[in-house]
Design a protein that fits this description.
Number of domains: 3
Helix content: 40-55%
Largest sheet: 6 strands, mixed
Distance between the termini: 38 Å
Shape: globular
Radius of gyration: 21 Å
Number of helices: 16
Number of strands: 12
Structural class: alpha/beta
């Protein structure tokens, strides 16, 4: 059964009351876009309300402090802790520990929960809808439903979020269509992603006279071009995938979030979070602290845009190699250090198997906790040390 936001808020309030005497809370997220943003909102708000708070990325090492787990069901009965999981389920209680489920993104759930207890900054609430993109909750004809839709409506009144219909490409309205299509990773477009030459061919095929100069405005102003482009991209998605594709992945409702004096697409923010979170642990830490200052978040966007071409090229090369040849999924690491972006793309294309997607750097073979949780449910991550964890990773990757 689905748990309402009021129930989540009540459980969260009870947890906060139970840990006040400790004065410290450890936040442990599974590393994904939604959990990172939820962690960022929690870190900022808890600190502002008098708690010492830290973020940990090693959930398989037991801690004695009060903890909030995000997308991880790892509560221990001997320490106050709260697990918030995405999905449908009943409340699980074990002594001082409690696990609750939400059908909405963790980010939106945390934002609306905090709003019932403390003041939440508009930027935090705005960014929370990006977690809904990670969960594919916006892939409906009318866009978001439920909690994310409520946030969009509330912030739309003050102009913090603007919504409209358009193509769901990276850099839509900010960059020329040539680069917008070539650097789109969600959805990954077989044959087009990372290939400027292939994008030129497609734009020329549908009747664009000067592909390098074509903008989103040019497409929106020409209904025939709009229809042809949508049809071409959807066709490429379907022919390059082994499972059905939703046209809303290509064209649908877009959300633009106000950062400083500019509006940035929530899809662009999603891409930034996804890509930077798989490059290096330092980037993950920077993303978690990003909501402390919108200027800081803008700088993260600039950083992402400066490296997007190289990163997308590497991702596309590895995706196409695996998609066309199959075999053990061991990916050579240059820029991308975590397998999660590959897992998401392989799943979209319908080629994700039951083996762990692994990374290889020199002689080192490794993967992420997300991958181990996806492929093996029998491992007790709280009960193993670093050495045992590495051995399990190696065995799972063989």
């Amino acid at each position: 059964m689905s748990i309402s936001i009021d129930v989540v808020s009540r459980e969260f309030s009870e947890f906060i009351k139970s840990v006040k005497d400790y004065g410290f809370i450890r936040i442990t997220p599974l590393v994904n876009v939604d959990a990172i943003i939820a962690s960022s909102i929690l870190l900022k708000t808890l600190y502002e309300n008098g708690f010492n708070v830290a973020v940990s990325f090693k959930p398989y090492i037991g801690v004695k402090e009060p903890a909030i787990y995000l997308d991880l069901d790892l509560c221990k009965p001997d320490t106050p802790c709260l697990s918030i999981l995405y999905g449908i389920g009943s409340i699980k209680s074990d002594g001082l520990s409690k696990t609750i489920y939400t059908p909405y993104s963790l980010s939106a759930t945390v934002a609306k929960t905090i709003e019932k207890i403390w003041v939440i900054d508009a930027i935090d609430k705005s960014i929370s809808i990006v977690g809904g993109i990670y969960r594919n909750l916006d892939l409906n004809k009318e866009g978001f439903k439920g909690l994310e839709s409520t946030i969009v409506k509330e912030l739309g009144k003050s102009g913090r979020i603007v919504s409209e219909v358009g193509f769901r490409f990276w850099g839509w309205k900010r960059h020329k269509l040539l680069h917008s299509l070539a650097y789109t990773l969600k959805p990954y477009i077989p044959g087009l992603t990372s290939s400027l030459d292939k994008v030129r061919e497609v734009l020329t095929k549908i009747g664009v006279g000067k592909p390098d100069e074509c903008s989103s405005g040019d497409i929106l102003a020409n209904s025939q071009l709009l229809k042809k482009l949508a049809s071409e991209i959807i066709s490429l998605l379907r022919s390059g995938s082994k499972k059905s594709r939703n046209p809303a992945e290509v064209i649908g409702r877009l959300y633009f979030i106000k950062l400083g004096d500019e509006y940035v697409s929530s899809l662009d923010l999603y891409s930034m979070y996804e890509v930077l979170s798989v490059l290096d642990t330092d980037y993950i830490v920077n993303l978690i602290y990003g909501l402390q200052d919108s200027f800081y978040l803008e700088n993260m966007m600039y950083l992402y845009e400066s490296i997007i071409d190289k990163v997308v090229e590497e991702i596309a090369y590895n995706v196409e190699f695996y998609r066309t040849r199959g075999g053990p999924c061991i990916i050579e690491s240059r820029f991308v250090k975590r397998p999660d972006v590959y897992t998401r793309i392989f799943d979209e294309l319908g080629v994700l198997g039951d083996k762990v997607v692994c990374m290889k750097s020199g002689d080192r073979l490794y993967t992420s906790l997300s991958e181990l949780l996806r492929t093996s449910s029998k491992i007790d991550y709280n009960a193993v040390d670093d050495k045992q964890f590495i051995e399990m990773v190696f065995n799972e990757c063989k």
